[in-house]
Each structure stands twice: as C-alpha cells, then as structure tokens.
C-alpha cells in the first residue's frame, strides 16, 4: 500500500504521556504467572532465550560494553561453543565526538574474555539524530515510537536481517535494587533489624490503597519534575507515578511478575519489535523475557537484590571478568541523538506540533535550545517534526498497513 493510501490511528502514548515523555501506569497485559514446579533456574532460562536466538542466525548482539550487553554476549558465545552453533556477532557503535559514549576499553575486555571472534564496530557521527534522516524514515514507517532512543538499535538491526537481534533491554530494571518495598521485605524475612518507622511501612503494605498511598507519600517523589509541563499536567504525571507505586506488590517475586504489565515494558517491547521487523529481523531481550523473569521471581522470592554487582556476580561470574561484574557507571548516548538536524529544528521551531494544553511551549523552546535538552522531551521533538512535515498525521500516530 502506498504512503498516501495509508490511514492513521492513535498510537502508543496518550497525549499526557507524550507530553511527559514516559509511558505511565499499567496496561492491558496480565502479570506473568508463577514459574511451575521443575522450571529451569534463572541462568538456565537466560541461556534458553539466547539459544533460541543462536538457532536463528545471524545472532546479532547489540553490544555497548555495559554490563547487560556484556552478559548477553558472553553467555551467547559460551552457549554457541557448547551447542556447536554459529557464534554470535557482536556489533558496537562508536560515536565520534561523544566522549560520554566511549566504552572501548570495556568492550575489548569482554571480547577477549568471551573469546568472541566476530565483532563489528560501526563508526557513527550524526546518524542517530532525533529528527535526522534515519529517525524520519522510522517515523514515516512506524509513527513516533517510544522511547525515542529505540532507533539506537537501527544500524545494528540492519545487520541482523533474516536472523535475530538480541538487546540488553530490561537489565537495568531487573538486575538493580530500588523496588518499592525492599526494606520491608528484608525486615519481614529477618535480614535486617526492624526500626520504629517500619511499623508504618507494614501498615501501608497490608492496608487499603488509600492508606498505602499515604505511607508511600512520605517517601521521596520518584519522578523528576518536567518544567515544560503545565501545572495540571505535572500533577497528573505525579499522580500516575503514585498510582504505579500503590499498585506494586509488596512481595518482590510478585512485583517482578507484575512489572510485565507495565506500559513501560509493553510499549518498549512493541517499539523494539517494530524496529527489528522493519529490517527483516526477529528480536529477543533475555533480561525482559518471561522465561527469565519468572525464574528470577521464583529464585529471589521475597527479597530483591542488594546491589547490581551482587546480581551480576550471582548469574554471570563464570563468563565475565570481575571488573565488568562490579563496574560502577555506564555510558551515556544522549550526545549521539542531538545532531545538527535536531539543533536546527529546535532553533527554528515555531511552537506547533505539541499540545499547548499540556505543554508550555515557551519553556519547552528554551529547554530545546540548551546544550543538553532533557531526554524525556525527545518524543516531543519527533512528534513536533512529524506534525510539521506530515500534516496528515497526528502527534504520536502509526501508519496502519
């Protein structure tokens, strides 16, 4: 069907979510069921996901050098050798002039440790510009996808045509501490000595939603303010974050399975799936695969990880160097997305293409003209561009084939 014959329908983010730059709340996907008796361990489940990718070559690993992609690549290399399958292809992107994205030393360490022989390094400059040619092509095919940095994997997906792209999505979330009821779970399992304030936490955990909301309101607000939002929109976003915390199960294992229902999860998986399919590739995310999540939920039980390093050591100490397992910090790729096309668009933007009932256009314009605009506003960049050059489309829509 030609482009002009395509219809448009509402897509992915609500107007409030688009303005905020985040998929909020719980969607229509049911939580994951408990892992049945006799299910494989978390590490075994992780390997099963990767084995599936290896059996549909080329198995291309999006390899930044961070802990998540390093674990995937190292396990994939080991499983391929064990099973006599074609080895994974590591693909790394190097960004000229973006110092915060420099990961060469970490990449080389993992490549050597995992004995990876097929390593592609793509030298990029402005290819990932938020409203550059690649982004515009993706928007014309799929609409404005969330998150906007979905296109980070596009140059890598192009090398996975006919095979499988493997990403580290989900690793930051599932392998890190920071779940809502961590301390209370440790108190209930007698891992830490209770304090007087824990009685209030217990009341919130077992009480009705209204009481739980009041207890959680005593904690720091998990959402950073978005200065470009109108006050009523900012309040609505904060309320949505509160609703999410109120809904999170207390038991950590249940919380992991519940996380599968979040719009954050479903929307990201949907976007990455569209991206890969557009290049003729399948896509898998071992850290966000139901097999791995249910296994992790069963193994952890009530208590979440004490640290990211603890999680990594417990699962991957046999395949990764110690420096990678316990490293602190990670690369930032924001500079790769703020290319000349985006800078020019921001400079000349007339305020159209965003919903002024949610967005303070003057504040947003000022933010976009700073050296490092808030990454949460990237979807608005793309929606404003789409509305300017594709007037038949509404902000945040997808073309239906």
UniProtKB/TrEMBL annotation:
InterPro entries: Asn_synthase (IPR001962), Rossmann-like_a/b/a_fold (IPR014729). Residues 57-374 form the Asparagine synthetase domain. One of its GO terms (molecular function) is asparagine synthase (glutamine-hydrolyzing) activity. It comes from the Bacteria. GO terms for biological process: asparagine biosynthetic process. Pfam families: Asn_synthase (PF00733). This is Asparagine synthase (Glutamine-hydrolysing). The lineage of its organism: Bacteria, Bacillati, Actinomycetota, Actinomycetes, Geodermatophilales.
């Amino acid at each position: 069907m030609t482009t002009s014959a395509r219809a448009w329908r509402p897509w992915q983010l609500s107007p409030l979510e688009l303005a905020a730059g985040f998929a909020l709340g719980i969607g229509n996907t049911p939580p994951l069921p408990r892992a049945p008796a006799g299910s494989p361990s978390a590490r075994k489940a992780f390997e099963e996901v990767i084995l599936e990718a290896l059996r549909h070559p080329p198995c291309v690993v999006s390899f930044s050098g961070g802990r998540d992609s390093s674990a995937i690549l190292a396990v994939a290399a080991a499983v391929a050798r064990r099973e006599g399958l074609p080895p994974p292809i590591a693909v790394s992107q190097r960004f000229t002039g973006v110092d915060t994205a420099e990961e060469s030393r970490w990449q080389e360490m993992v490549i050597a440790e995992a004995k990876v022989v097929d390593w592609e390094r793509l030298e990029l400059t402005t290819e990932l510009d938020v409203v550059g040619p690649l982004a515009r092509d993706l928007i014309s095919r799929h609409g404005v996808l969330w998150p906007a940095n979905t296109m980070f994997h596009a140059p890598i997906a192009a090398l996975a045509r006919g095979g499988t792209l493997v990403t580290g999505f989900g690793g930051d979330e599932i392998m890190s501490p920071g779940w809502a009821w961590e301390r209370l779970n440790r108190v209930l399992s007698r891992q830490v000595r209770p304090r007087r304030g824990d009685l209030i936490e217990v009341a919130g955990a077992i009480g009705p939603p209204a009481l739980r909301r009041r207890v959680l309101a005593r904690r720091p607000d998990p959402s950073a303010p978005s200065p470009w939002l109108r006050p009523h929109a900012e309040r609505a976003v904060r309320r949505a974050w509160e609703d999410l915390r109120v809904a999170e199960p207390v038991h950590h294992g249940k919380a992991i399975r519940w996380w599968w229902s979040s719009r954050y999860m479903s929307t990201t998986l949907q976007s990455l799936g569209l991206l890969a399919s557009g290049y003729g590739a399948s896509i898998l995310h071992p850290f966000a695969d139901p097999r791995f999540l249910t296994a992790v939920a069963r193994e952890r039980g009530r208590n979440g990880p004490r640290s990211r390093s603890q999680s990594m050591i417990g699962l991957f100490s046999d395949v990764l160097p110690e420096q990678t397992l316990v490293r602190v910090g990670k690369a930032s790729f924001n500079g790769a997305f703020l290319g000349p096309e985006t800078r020019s668009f921001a400079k000349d933007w007339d305020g159209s293409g965003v919903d002024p009932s949610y967005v303070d256009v003057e504040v947003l314009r000022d933010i976009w003209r700073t050296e490092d605009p808030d990454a949460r506003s990237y979807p608005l960049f793309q929606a404003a561009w789409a509305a300017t050059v594709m007037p038949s489309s509404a902000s945040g829509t997808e073309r239906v084939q």
